[in-house]
Amino acid sequence: MSTTAPTTGRGVLRGAVTGQRKSVLAASVLAAGHQGGEALVPVVVGVVLDRAVGDSSTLTLLGWLAVLAVVFLVLSYSYRFGARAAERASERAAHEIRLAVSRRVLHPRGGAETGSLAGELVSVGTSDARRVGMVNAVLPFGIAALVGLVVSAVVLLRMSVPLGLLVLLGTPPLLFLAHLIGKPLEKRSELEQERAAHASGVAADLVSGLRVLKGIGAEPAATARYRRTSRDSLQATIRAARAQAWHNGALLALTGIFIAIVALVGGSLAANGEISVGDLVAAVGLAQFLQTPFTIFAWVNGQLAQGRASAGRVAAVLSAPPAVLDGTGELPVSARGSVTFSSVSQGKLRELDLTVPPGELLGVVTTDPATATDLLDCLGRFADPRDGSVHIDAVNLSTVDPERVRDVVLVAAHDTDLFEGTVEDNVRGGMPAVPDGVLTASAADEVAATLPSGTATTVTERGRSLSGGQRQRVALARALATEATVLVLHDPTTAVDTVTESRIATGVAQLRRNRTTIVVTTSPALLSETDRVVLIEDGQVVAEGSHAELVRAEAAYRAAVLS
């Protein structure tokens, strides 16, 4: 994954769409050949009537029929390969946009996920990316329709100046009206995508927490919430469909009136003897043909309106400000792992001062869960302190590139998910093998022993085929396997029984001996194995000592860990 800084969203979109200009150009040329051929068909038929049939010449008739066959061959070939080139350009552009959205969402500096549910981001990276990519599919056909109109106008000009001018001068106002008619569709399409993405995000959120919802009996409330969200999405979709129908109907009515005027003028000229019978046939045929390019214009205009709406949503994700700024500072190649909070204020933290010497196993207890979240965000550089600084080996983390910070500091969040694959794959990550002692220290060896194929057992998406305690132990094993210089664990044993928790506490302490480890937890078993425990209340360290000392001396500590 590229870790370059996030780029301006609209610039990325332009690059993804225009990057397929060769395919779009090829598709445009081929599609123009198709539309030009379609326009020439009634012209050749008119010539056959005037010359071949009028002169009663079989040879001339065969010759023009051969010309007509060639025209059909060319337009058929052009459409087939033009559509293929347009589809290729569309899919490639959508693919580039999906990659850009994925890179932005996964960027170490973060920020893209702020205020958005996971399902909403998935919708932007799939449905909206496809709609923007469709611009490359429709543009060649829009250009081809314009070519068809020009060919028709030129032919009509050669037959009759009034007919040609009617087409040439009548087309621009019609296209402008089509653009105005597409504005309501664009707005309603944007709202439709927003509501659909929100519904998708809520659905993903509810599915991921299904076991919890069942456990607390909250299924009716969850169902009601999704019903409301789904109803809003449905109403937005219906409004967008109505706008689409009105848009298509209005354009069809306008083009029908325009074509009728062309046919009426052509018939009047033929009745006055200003054009031949063959020319009249050609003019009527061209008037009927004009229905095709105008229908294409209606389709293209609708697709572009939807594409513009989706482009705005994609650009918003790509242009989202990063959660933290870039940095030019460098951590030592072999970091010792000392951690220092100097007057840090961020969220619930209030001028926090805390020093963790290299190799210490530190327990952290907070009376407010939000305080723990803010502490973890600062340690992993998911957020920079509003005031004060966090140092690793005397280097200010705010000056270091976030990716480099995470090479040294690993924050293992409480709600970490597993991925589809084997248990070993989840523990090993990108490493060639699982380090010795990791499975034992995390009690994940017990999990493997209960599975049919041990660590080679495949788990489903997000590890749902495992119990909560099993998932937690595998996630802990994955964190331990990184052998990070500074490892931060947040409530790693909340879903396991007390016997297993005690074993994990001992195993983590032994495996992480002489390596800096910070455990943010209220588990007595884990805290009793630490070298030191600090109690953070109202955003500041109010007490420190061993677990036993704090249990005896601090009422707030007892309430937090023994309640």
Tell me about this structure.
The structure is a single chain. With 563 residues, the chain is α/β, with parallel strands linked by helices. The chain contains 19 helices and twelve strands. A six-stranded mixed sheet has the order 6-9-10-3-11-12, with helices on both faces. It is found in: Cell membrane.
Features:
single chain; 563 residues; alpha/beta; six-stranded mixed sheet; four-stranded antiparallel sheet; 65% helix; elongated; disordered N terminus
**Order of strands across the main sheet:** 6-9-10-3-11-12
Radius of gyration: 34 Å
What count of helical segments does DSSP give? Answer: 19
Stretches where pLDDT is under 50 for at least 5 consecutive residues are 1-6
Number of strands: 12
Q: Approximately how much helix is present in the residues?
A: 55-70%
Please tell me the overall pLDDT: 83
Structural class: alpha/beta
Q: Using the alpha-carbon principal axes, give the shape.
A: elongated
Query: How would a crystallographer describe the biggest sheet?
Result: 6 strands, mixed
% residues in beta strands: 5-15%
